[in-house]
């Protein structure tokens, strides 16, 4: 680990000033500190923001939910309003990492975490995300865990967050604070596909601070849930996952929100699946037909072609779990 300066701030103004000077924000530190140990990240200054007043979960006036950036993953998962309104969020969080990490890691840090691609974390390997222009060792290497959707010639790494998949499905917004004031960004626009600039992963401006993630109100009743498929039952990242939220009225699907994880360079919304569900009545045939559309546009690599079929089966299974069958 390289030498660095450390400072602790107690208010947002102090945090923004430190951020403008190039400081890197840290709270739980469960990702950044690991990357520093591996010399992938070499920040000159760490800014501890854990004392900022961003620890609340609140229900908005319209019935949505706002989760402060510094709410711990375990706290958010156990919060009664999160569990009641959006169980898909609680389930995604509970299926993330170990209990010890969930007790430390924050919501803001979770969506900011960087890929677990082994080539990204190996400083001797070519990685455009870590060192632009150096190449992508994963594209010709062992790429079983890598992405099949949203890839480019520059990068094929997956985004590792589980709860980000739920946020993508629920059309969340990320609230930010910077030197130009407050702004909010649709979650779909906050995490960036690699394109030709895989080193730029979020739509953050210099020194901006995540203050909260807001989930808008959705029609009620809303059934939702998260399914994660992985090589082992615990402490493992997803090969595929599915976040599903369905609003049924009179036995007909009026709203459908579906996103997948473990297969995209960002949490991957599945609009073709959603469109096939709207206006239909739940049935096993419907779930199967909708799930067939889950892998549209996939570009599999040498070792991860199996993810196409696995994604379809994961989406079908979670549609059946959430929507039921007559």
Automatic annotation (TrEMBL):
Single GO molecular-function term? oxidoreductase activity
Q: Which SUPFAM superfamilies match?
A: CO dehydrogenase flavoprotein C-terminal domain-like, FAD-binding/transporter-associated domain-like
State the Gene3D superfamilies in the record.
3.30.465.10, CO dehydrogenase flavoprotein, C-terminal domain, Uridine Diphospho-n-acetylenolpyruvylglucosamine Reductase, domain 2
Where does the FAD-binding PCMH-type domain lie?
A: 1-220
Q: Which InterPro entries match?
A: CO_DH_flav_C (IPR005107), CO_DH_flav_C_dom_sf (IPR036683), Diverse_Substr_Oxidored (IPR051312), FAD-bd_PCMH (IPR016166), FAD-bd_PCMH-like_sf (IPR036318), FAD-bd_PCMH_sub1 (IPR016167), FAD-bd_PCMH_sub2 (IPR016169), Mopterin_DH_FAD-bd (IPR002346)
An example of a Pfam family matching this protein is FAD_binding_5
| The organism's place on the tree of life at top rank | Bacteria
Q: Sorted alphabetically, which keywords does the UniProt record give? A: Oxidoreductase
Q: Which PANTHER family match?
A: OXIDOREDUCTASE, XANTHINE DEHYDROGENASE SUBUNIT C-RELATED
Q: What is this protein called?
A: Xanthine dehydrogenase YagS FAD-binding subunit
- Natural source organism: Nonomuraea solani
